[in-house]
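Notebook entry, structure prediction.
Reason for the run: the old model in the group folder had no record of what sequence produced it. Starting over properly, with the input documented here first.
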Amino acid sequence: MKLGRLCIPALLLAAVCCYSQRGASPAVAAPAPASPQGAPSPAVGTNSDSYVIGASDVLTVTVWNQPTLSGTILVRPDGMITVALIGDVQASGMTPLQLANQIATELKKYYTDPNVSVVISQIHSKLVYLLGEVEKKGPVDMTPGMTLLNAIADAGGLTDYANTKKMYILRGETGKQQKIPVRYKDALKGISECNVILEPGDTIVVP
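New structure, fully documented this time:
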């Protein structure tokens, strides 16, 4: 009889514990916020606020959610591009951001708030030149942020006869050119200020 009385409180205690566990709400991780849907961002390395488009550059024009209006377009010698639906648009002399806004303005005649992105796919309108003891003399297409070492690498490197102590860069218009000494070996060591960032029209001379 005493054993039965002892079992009853034990059973009651177990029941209470089970009820507490069932009633407790498990911790649930908050769902991650959904990624906003927007137009593609400009290409890495191309500054949409400052790069000026020129003839022979290749552009990627993307109209969000309108694949038939998007594609890769060559800037013609007259500085124009042809965009489906709106026809010819002046591209040369504009930044990618300015051109995207211009295309969007024209498309507003047909769509509500069109979202347009312009990215520089290939740069052919901006050149630098290499003379002297390089493997491939002549013009080299610039890339965004091109440096001295980048240009020399694109030209196939220096020849065995190159005098690296007397290298220099000519910058500016003919008759007003600035001669910039080159510390080639220091540039190879990773000293950033010696790896000069080039400008369109620069000529690298390697004696």
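Summary: The domain at 58-122 is CATH 3.30.1950.10 (wza like fold).
The old model has been moved to the deprecated folder.
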